[in-house]
């Protein structure tokens, strides 16, 4: 089984709720089990993105990246 490449959504510079709305749209296009990486700079994303993932049944891991937050989401 081939390893799927990560899909990256660059939401740096976008304010709430745009990172979550863009993530929702992108996740709808991906099959279950796919990985979406979101880069965000809005401090509210630290709350909004994990909450969205929990409500939708996706796994979410947050990492720090230079100048941005990096959210690694596995679609449920």
TrEMBL record:
Concerning SUPFAM superfamilies, the annotation shows: SirA-like
Give the transmembrane region(s): none
Q: Which Pfam families match?
A: TusA
Q: Which Gene3D superfamilies match?
A: TusA-like domain
UPF0033 domain location: 9-33
Q: Which InterPro entries match?
A: TusA-like, TusA-like_sf
Which domain of life does the protein's organism represent? Answer: Bacteria
Q: Family, per the entry?
A: Belongs to the sulfur carrier protein TusA family.
Q: What is this protein called?
A: Sulfurtransferase TusA family protein
- Supply the source organism for this entry: Paradevosia shaoguanensis
